[in-house]
User: Fold these one by one.
Assistant:
Number 1:
Amino acid sequence: MAFKSEEQAKAYWSENLALMFKLLAIWFVVSFGCGILFVDVLNEVRFFGFKLGFWFSQQGAIYTFVALIFVYVSKMDALDKKYGVDE
């Protein structure tokens, strides 16, 4: 990667870290919040025959993580193009 200036490199990494923290926060809320903290409230709702809290703790967090990987890839491609460091 070749940035034109040090400020451009810092801006790139700043945006990259902000994106990662946002996506990790979403994953934390889904996995820890929905799977552990709010499980009793969510278990009152059925999803495909299973209690929703159980579903989030067993599969929902995994599906969310995989979806967040695809979001990260697409956002990083756009960020790379924005700063001219795409391949």
Note: The helical segments are 6-37, 39-42, 52-83.
Number 2:
Amino acid sequence: MKEHDKTAHDPFRLQRHRTPLAGGALAIVVLLIAVLLLASCGDGRPGFWRRGGQNDAALSCPRPASVTGSEFNAQEAGLRALRRAAFRGDVFAQLELGSRYAAVRATDKNIEDPIESAVWYAMALANDEGYAPINRVERNRGGLFGGGWRPLSRYDDCRAFERHRAYQVLDRQLSRMSREEQEAVRDRVIYVLSTQDAEGYRTLARLHDGLYGPFGEPEDNPEAREALGRAADGQGLGQKRPRGGYWAAINLFQRNDVDAYLYNYLAVQTGDVGAYVLMKDFERSSPGRAQYAGFVEAKARQWTPPFEFYPLEAPASGVPFSDESRPRGDAYEYALSRLQGELPFIHVGRALRYLGVTPEAVTAPEQLSRQQIEAFEAMIGHATESRLSPVERVRAIQLAAVNGSSEAQLVLAVMYAEGIGLPADYARSFKWFSEAARQGSPEAKFAMSTYFALGVAGVADQDKADAVAYRIESALSGFGPSASRLQALLSQVSRAQQQRR
């Protein structure tokens, strides 16, 4: 009895009995929490337990079966289908193209092209379909033991892994490239996005905006933070990982406010109302950004995409790239509708002759044979349809211009100036007039003199001296209308000098 009383009145003795029990309970609680974390799949996506025990195929998003059969040209047909989807913003087609051109499979070794592979991995990373949350499920709904921590779909998680892997592959590819090759990747991405109207320009703006992740995703995106070498969610914002980030990938596009503003401005010029709202938000997002308005406006008027079409040369593999950037929007449709009645077919015929498709310039599409049409379609990477579509007529002139035909350059400049076949674009018109004039075209020199005589805001400032120089060169080259107009222009210049005296 005394021993019992002693124990009851000895708090330290009682605590010694309870300590093992408390320690055991704490261990059980920690174990339970660990099990719940391993079984759950929350927004933080702790992945150390999965990536070690599962292969990439288990973590990747499912892919559809091949779109082609065992026919002779299955590889080329498959690439065409993928490129059509990729140019229209299908993130999985972009990822698949990156994989194909990287020659992950032995059967794709003949089309291996690191530059083209990097282009499509970069396009997939910049595509908001790859990182915008789709599965908006309350992950903790149902309480701790209600099973609500498990997601209803793994779509968000597999996309996250696809982007994680895309960053790794792109960084490895760019690290092995020269500066010129990296510039080729960047120019092709800019061209593709510039064909997507306001949406593409807004993506380009985010790629250059330091307030976003490396490829325009939100700054707190886990894959973006990993690429930057920062801690993932739950490890503290701004903390550094032990290893570095993907520096080659994140430096493909340099961040600066001027370029970000420029692409926002170009998005507004497409007529998109939402782009205007976003541009105003951009101006207010950081002190001093609005001060670039006047400079960016002038720069935007002179901006032209890196290419006329994609790409400039055929790949070494012999399996052609195809430019699937189809005209879109009312401006393009209206410009194409004017092609039939306002552009004589002889200009297309001369372009085809210059390209070696026909031995002489034809004056009507009926004069082209089926073999000649299919040869040209193969040349530009289009599917053979045995007829020249309006877009292909434009491509014939563009391809001849790019390959050095001064005649095609002059025609293309007029098409851009008048909005025939292509939407009016004075910057591109001035560029092709300049190219043709450099090759000695008297008509192009006369057009250049008109540009400088009248002045085109932002493209060519009014400069009477340059106007006279081009007009003289045009007249000496034998262009008829130059003589009388030259005399009138010289008299204007002389009167202006007399007034200054």
Note: The longest helix spans residues 11-39.
